[in-house]
Amino acid sequence: MYQQPSSQLASQTISKRAIADLLIWLGRTQWQENYNAHDLVIEVWAAGIWVKQAGLISYRTLAQWLKTLAQLKAYHLSVHKKGDRLYLVQGSQQPWYAVVNRGEHYSCECMLYRCRYNRVKKEMPKLYQSLEQQIFCHHTEAARMIA
C-alpha cells in the first residue's frame, strides 16, 4: 500500500461518494447489493485505487473520470474573456474565478485547482502521470471550451 494522500486531496479526488459514482459510471455495481457508498474502504496503491468491496480502479480510469466530471460541470458555466489570456468563470463559492491561459496549461484561483496543483504531483504521482501532468478544474475546462 502506498502512502495515503492528505485528507484535503482525498476529499477532492477519492472520497467515498466520488468513488461510488465512478464505480457506477463504470458499470461496476455489484457492491451495491451489500454495501452503500459510506461502507466503501478505499486505499491508494501503486497500481491504482483499491476499493475493498469492488476491486482496483486504475489511475488512468480515475483521470478520465475526473476530466469527464470537470467537462460536464464546465458546460453550464458562464465565461467572460477579459484579455488575451484572462477569463472570468462563474463560480459557486464566489461569483467569479480568474482563469489564466499560461500557454502549456490553464490555472485557476479556486480551492479545487489549488488543492490539486499543490498536492497531486507529490501525494499521488501515478495519478499526476495519468493526468498527463496537467492539473485542471471545471473552471479551467470552461475557459478552454471558449478559447
Overview of this structure, please?
The structure is a single chain. The chain is an alpha+beta fold and 147 residues long. It has one domain. Helix content is 41%, strand content 19%. The protein is built from 6 helices and 7 strands; from the N terminus they run ααβββαββββααα. Strands 4-5-6-7 form a 4-stranded antiparallel β-sheet, with helices on one face. A hairpin with a 5-residue loop joins strand 5 and strand 6. Helix 3 packs across helix 6. The longest helix has 16 residues.
Instruction: Give a count of the beta strands, DSSP E runs of length 2 or more.
Output: 7
Strand line-up of the largest beta sheet: 4-5-6-7
What kind of sheet is the major sheet?
Answer: 4 strands, antiparallel
- From the alpha-carbon coordinates, what is the Rg to the nearest angstrom? 16 Å
Per the principal axes of the C-alpha atoms, what is the gross shape?
Answer: elongated
| Oligomeric form | single chain
Count of helix runs: 6
Kindly state the mean pLDDT as a whole number? Answer: 96
Structural class by helix and strand composition: alpha+beta
Task: Determine the strand fraction and express it as a percent band.
Answer: 15-25%
Runs in which pLDDT lies below 50 for 5 or more consecutive residues are none
Give the count of structural domains: 1
Sequence of secondary-structure elements: HHEEEHEEEEHHH
Helical residue percent band: 40-55%
Intertermini distance: 41 Å
